[in-house]
Amino acid sequence: MTYTVAVAGASGYAGGEVLRLLAGHPELEVTTVTASSNAGKKLVELQPHLRSYAHLTLQETTAEVLAGHDVVFLALPHGASGAITAQLPDDVVVIDCGADHRLTDEAAWAKFYGGEFNEPWAYGVPELAAGDGKLRDRLVGAKKIAAPGCNASAVSLAIAPGFTAGLVEEDVVAVLAVGPSGAGKNLKVPYLASELLGSANPYGVGGGHRHIPEIVQNLKLAGATEPRVSFTPVLVPMARGILATVTAPLKPGVTAAQVREAWEAAYAGEAFVQVLPEGVWPRTADVLGANTALIGVTVDEAAGKVVAIIAVDNLVKGTAGAAIQSANIALGLPEGTALTTNGVAP
Ligand SMILES: NC(=O)C1=CN([C@@H]2O[C@H](COP(=O)(O)OP(=O)(O)OC[C@H]3O[C@@H](n4cnc5c(N)ncnc54)[C@H](OP(=O)(O)O)[C@@H]3O)[C@@H](O)[C@H]2O)C=CC1
Ligand SMILES: CC(=O)N[C@@H](CCC(=O)OP(=O)(O)O)C(=O)O
């Protein structure tokens, strides 16, 4: 069966990546692409690397244009997608790459985003533990899916096994090297090349980053009670990619063997989340273009902490790949359709 697909926000980074991956999908056929200020232009004017879509013109992003497709991917700024989703028919499968349907906690939404609170949807990180199962279970047959924040999914995947196995204290510290494409096609300082090249620029320091409530929500699902999350991203000069170093204190008596067993068990059989052998550390280059999260984990005995390092491509496993993986599950298609575990290196 072929499903018709509309991609909204197709002129942006996330929408472009959804399109790049969907070009290799045998059952999802993109028939409509939309934008805002760039509506009316040919898609390839904005996305010259997407040659297979040369026939498509960007339309206005309205509920009327999007309705009538079997599947809609939204890659719009926060707030814009919530306004559209309220108007789309119930039977359309909608995957929102924005944050509008991620949070279950209305107070957290008000504090970190503001504006109208939208109902939470099935969260698109299938491999994350949730209760006795995984979030994958909630995606089966889902009509509405919230794709994750890229940083939030990386940090959550890296440390969740410690909570599921009851090995770590609720005191998580995450420091991330992130590429500027995570901010979208942003023409402001500090995303300009002249500000970014040859520099590493921290931002969102001191508890203000909006991915903190998303991580807390994920870790609670994985078994934490009231986790405290210190989260510090640092912009570095690589177009895409996230390398997150996540630490947490070990509970008394926990051994390195228990840690390794817990992390390997958490992701056993998962194609897209892989735990590396002891002493092997992930690199962003190994996951660029791939839907893969690579995790290295060890115990720092002197510090009494677990150290987990994860590499993801923010635009693939962090957004568009997660969105397509989740859509595949929702539609009953093989989960990895149109997705690869192989990166692009060097
Ligand atoms: N970049 C990333 O790594 C990640 C992004 N996301 C999320 O995906 C979404 C898109 O991000 P990204 O692609 O990076 O952003 P971009 O700025 O690159 O793209 C934004 C897109 O939305 C369109 N747009 C802008 N304003 C409006 C509006 N008011 N109504 C309708 N469409 C509008 C733009 O159209 P036009 O070009 O015509 O202005 C463009 O197509 C965001 O919610 C983001 O948080 C999530 C995870 C990671
Ligand atoms: C470099 C950079 O700015 N990255 C973004 C990641 C955004 C993201 O993951 O998307 P959502 O906004 O949909 O959550 C940030 O840290 O906010």
How would you characterize the largest beta sheet?
A: 7 strands, parallel
Shape: globular
Per CATH, the superfamily of the largest domain is Dihydrodipicolinate Reductase, domain 2
Strand order of the largest sheet: 3-2-1-4-5-9-6
Using the coordinates shown, work out and report the CATH topology of the largest domain. Dihydrodipicolinate Reductase, domain 2
Mean pLDDT: 97
Low-confidence stretches: none
Strand content: 15-25%
Q: What is the straight-line distance between the termini?
A: 37 Å
Name the hetero compounds present.
Answer: NADPH dihydro-nicotinamide-adenine-dinucleotide phosphate, N-acetyl-L-glutamyl 5-phosphate
Q: Write down the secondary-structure element order.
A: EHEHEHEHEHEEEHEHEHEHEEHEEEH
What features would you describe in this structure?
- Pathway: Amino-acid biosynthesis; L-arginine biosynthesis; N(2)-acetyl-L-ornithine from L-glutamate: step 3/4.
- The active site is at residue 150.
- It is found in: Cytoplasm.
- The protein is an alpha/beta fold.
- The chain has 2 domains: 3-147 and 317-331, 3-Layer(aba) Sandwich (Rossmann fold), CATH 3.40.50.720; 151-314, 2-Layer Sandwich (Dihydrodipicolinate Reductase, domain 2).
- The chain is 27% helix and 23% strand.
- Strands 3-2-1-4-5-9-6 form a 7-stranded parallel beta sheet, covered by helices on one side. It has a 7-stranded mixed beta sheet with strand order 11-12-10-13-16-15-14.
- A hairpin with a 2-residue loop joins β7 and β8 (133-134).
- α1 (13-22) packs across α11.
